[in-house]
């Protein structure tokens, strides 16, 4: 009887322990499912420089989405944003950042994702266009032809950015090596382009790694054809203004149809649109995959 009684007590205790553990597991699961990510990130989107196309678009998103009511966009620099993202991923903490492709962070971090954008504020797939000042085709036909024929992929651009970030080399140095390693692509860009002797050409660009990559690649190919090339990094609004006013010859940095739409529309009568030099670009809000949300509408407005 004693053995039976002890056995019964043991079984009951074990069952009770199992039920308790199940309840705790269920409680943990519920707590996980009920995580208020909006509160956890202090209703803040970690962004980049003021005036950037994605900064302007995110400010619109905050105005348009009810779930972003009361949120703030923390504006700093691309480097600071990526550092905060890296720290958050290392500690498996929630974070919401402004993101875009091409960018080397998508090569570095394989566990980040875009939040769905039901209102279409960030647009769908983007292209990056080349623009030229009026008269460039007549003044410097070989430069115009080479820039017009320049075309590459998201993977090409991200490869240069990632190599520069990992090696610590300047993008100009990495771009020069990329040109050396991709003769077939360069051959297509220079088809029908004659050599010149010191003709000057000024490319104007934003200071971000994506645009620095394209500007330095094209500059290197132009130099190989005998051009004297200057790359001038400026704010995105100045990029469009400089081309429209004829203060610079061309840019490879116009993100359309959404990111730079306001700037494009303001000056579109005063420059030549040479078409896309890269397809498949994208912008939006980005979070780590371990955050159990899929859409901007999964976030919560800040209570007043």
UniProtKB/TrEMBL annotation:
Chief subcellular location: membrane
Biological processes per GO annotation: choline transport; glycine betaine transport
Protein's recorded name: Glycine/betaine ABC transporter
InterPro entries for this protein: ABC_Gly_betaine_transp_sub-bd
Location relative to the cell: Cell membrane
Gene Ontology CC annotations of this record: ATP-binding cassette (ABC) transporter complex
Domain ABC-type glycine betaine transport system substrate-binding: 36-180, 200-303
One Pfam assignment: OpuAC
Organism phylogeny: Bacteria, Bacillati, Bacillota, Bacilli, Bacillales
Keywords, ordered alphabetically: Cell membrane, Membrane, Transport
Organism: Virgibacillus salarius
Coiled-coil regions listed: none
Keyword Coiled coil on entry: no
Gene Ontology molecular function: any one: carnitine transmembrane transporter activity
